[in-house]
Write a structure and sequence with these properties.
mainly beta; 10 strands
Length: 102
């Protein structure tokens, strides 16, 4: 999986198509990520000592990594990436622009 926590991605399919957001958490074993503001679900919370009110909260759910694409903020375009070797280290590079992923 080539998408990591902190990357900016664009949703390419589904109800949130076209949405751009940051990856808050990545789950490589499941090939899923959590993107801020995408795939919002309502969760019913039981009252606890920390939250005596309980109630219904909205939070982001996981989305499959095949439904998102890395987004180059400078060029304002979503792109695939490739791996290149620079100074003996592997780096991720956008295919469309050739810029290195930050």
């Amino acid at each position: 999986m080539r998408i990591k926590t902190g990357d900016t991605v664009k949703v390419i399919t589904g109800a949130y198509k076209g949405t751009i957001g940051k990856v808050t958490k990545a789950f490589p074993k499941e090939d899923k990520v959590i993107v801020e503001g995408v795939n919002m679900v309502k969760k019913h919370m039981r009252p606890t000592q920390q939250d005596p009110e309980g109630g219904i909260i909205e939070k982001e759910a996981k989305i499959h990594v095949s439904n998102v694409m890395l987004y180059d903020e400078k060029a304002k375009v979503a792109s695939r990436i490739r791996m290149e070797e620079k100074d003996g280290k592997k780096v991720r590079v956008y295919k469309k622009t050739g810029a290195e992923v930050k």
